[in-house]
Amino acid sequence: MSSQNPAAVLPATSLPSRRLSVAPMMDWTDRHCRMFHRQITRHTWLYTEMVTTGALVYGDVERHLRYDGAEHPVALQLGGSDPADLAKSAKLGEQWGYDEINLNCGCPSERVQKGAFGACLMGEPQLVADCVKAMRDAVSVDVTVKHRIGIDYNEEYGFVRDFVGTIADAGCRTFIVHARNAVLKGLSPKENREIPPLRYEVAYQLKREFPALEILINGGIRTDEEIALHLQHVDGVMLGREAYHNPWVMADWDRRFYGDLDAPVKTRLQVLEAMLPYIAEQLRLYGQHGLKLNSITRHMLGIMTGLPGARAFRQVLSDSKKLATGDPALLLEAAARMPAAA
């Protein structure tokens, strides 16, 4: 179902827990990426790229919020710091059928800081509380917060404890904890994902101190074994770049972590085949507006990661001349380069 207006979007009637989720990632987790991920796992929560309040209050709402109904459960992540604008944007998200509205308090980029939101908001917990309250007053879906464990070089546990406590007092029950500090000056966003040390024990301590809250952990997590370890301490685990670059890591999540023994067991080839009707429909609807085949297939380059022939698969799927034809069957041509059925 291609969704072009709020009335076309139907929220999920029964939502799974946030036991597993794929992180919001700018320029990556767009609606095409999420639709692809949904072919691999049906219970994992999917998050949009961060959408600024300005883009919704003053921009093209349909362009930023349209998605496919098959993506549920899907959460809208907002970036902003004005309670009124966030309330308006959250309401739009609810009208479009998103299952959760998430406030970004973790992005360290200077561009975001200039807008006075992202990780720098951790230094203003009362403002964040006001924003959360305004959003909660405007919508009936969950309002959640994604944040770091500290800013700059302040590693005192009390800083993040007080931040979470203040926001919880405003009614927020779910916190997604990226278990690194955000260094606001001197490090790039990429360096902020690699240089500040991971301190998972801080998220664990938050769960012990706030047992009634839902605490999800994020940052540097790559394997099912690591997920299982974290789930002994917190309520949920969010993967980011590993899920994007190696999406087949999600293949057994429905069965292993959600206990859904009826979840379909697909091959990689079946996942690619399942995407063909969607791609054809999207190109039909939006090709005249500039949508190219590569806008969708670029998210699928990692599906053969770890298999013999994966490089040949990526080469075919990255061939500019072949992509220019706009033929979704290029996915099957690329898969045919694999030495055995995927």
Automatic annotation (TrEMBL):
<feature type="site" description="Interacts with tRNA; defines subfamily-specific binding signature">
    <location>
        <position position="311"/>
    </location>
</feature>
<keyword id="KW-0560">Oxidoreductase</keyword>
<keyword id="KW-0288">FMN</keyword>
<feature type="active site" description="Proton donor">
    <location>
        <position position="107"/>
    </location>
</feature>
<dbReference type="InterPro" id="IPR013785">
    <property type="entry name" value="Aldolase_TIM"/>
</dbReference>
<feature type="binding site">
    <location>
        <position position="146"/>
    </location>
    <ligand>
        <name>FMN</name>
    </ligand>
</feature>
<feature type="site" description="Interacts with tRNA">
    <location>
        <position position="104"/>
    </location>
</feature>
<feature type="binding site">
    <location>
        <begin position="218"/>
        <end position="220"/>
    </location>
    <ligand>
        <name>FMN</name>
    </ligand>
</feature>
<protein>
    <recommendedName>
        <fullName>tRNA-dihydrouridine(20/20a) synthase</fullName>
        <ecNumber>1.3.1.91</ecNumber>
    </recommendedName>
</protein>
<feature type="binding site">
    <location>
        <position position="77"/>
    </location>
    <ligand>
        <name>FMN</name>
    </ligand>
</feature>
<feature type="binding site">
    <location>
        <begin position="240"/>
        <end position="241"/>
    </location>
    <ligand>
        <name>FMN</name>
    </ligand>
</feature>
<dbReference type="InterPro" id="IPR018517">
    <property type="entry name" value="tRNA_hU_synthase_CS"/>
</dbReference>
<dbReference type="InterPro" id="IPR001269">
    <property type="entry name" value="DUS_fam"/>
</dbReference>
<comment type="function">
    <text>Catalyzes the synthesis of 5,6-dihydrouridine (D), a modified base found in the D-loop of most tRNAs, via the reduction of the C5-C6 double bond in target uridines. Specifically modifies U20 and U20a in tRNAs.</text>
</comment>
<keyword id="KW-0820">tRNA-binding</keyword>
<keyword id="KW-0285">Flavoprotein</keyword>
<dbReference type="GO" id="GO:0102264">
    <property type="term" value="F:tRNA-dihydrouridine20 synthase activity"/>
</dbReference>
<feature type="binding site">
    <location>
        <position position="178"/>
    </location>
    <ligand>
        <name>FMN</name>
    </ligand>
</feature>
<feature type="site" description="Interacts with tRNA">
    <location>
        <position position="193"/>
    </location>
</feature>
<dbReference type="InterPro" id="IPR035587">
    <property type="entry name" value="DUS-like_FMN-bd"/>
</dbReference>
<dbReference type="Pfam" id="PF01207">
    <property type="entry name" value="Dus"/>
</dbReference>
<comment type="similarity">
    <text>Belongs to the Dus family. DusA subfamily.</text>
</comment>
<feature type="binding site">
    <location>
        <begin position="24"/>
        <end position="26"/>
    </location>
    <ligand>
        <name>FMN</name>
    </ligand>
</feature>
<keyword id="KW-0694">RNA-binding</keyword>
<comment type="similarity">
    <text>Belongs to the dus family.</text>
</comment>
<feature type="domain" description="DUS-like FMN-binding">
    <location>
        <begin position="22"/>
        <end position="329"/>
    </location>
</feature>
<keyword id="KW-0521">NADP</keyword>
<dbReference type="InterPro" id="IPR004653">
    <property type="entry name" value="DusA"/>
</dbReference>
<keyword id="KW-0819">tRNA processing</keyword>
<feature type="site" description="Interacts with tRNA; defines subfamily-specific binding signature">
    <location>
        <position position="314"/>
    </location>
</feature>
<feature type="site" description="Interacts with tRNA; defines subfamily-specific binding signature">
    <location>
        <position position="190"/>
    </location>
</feature>
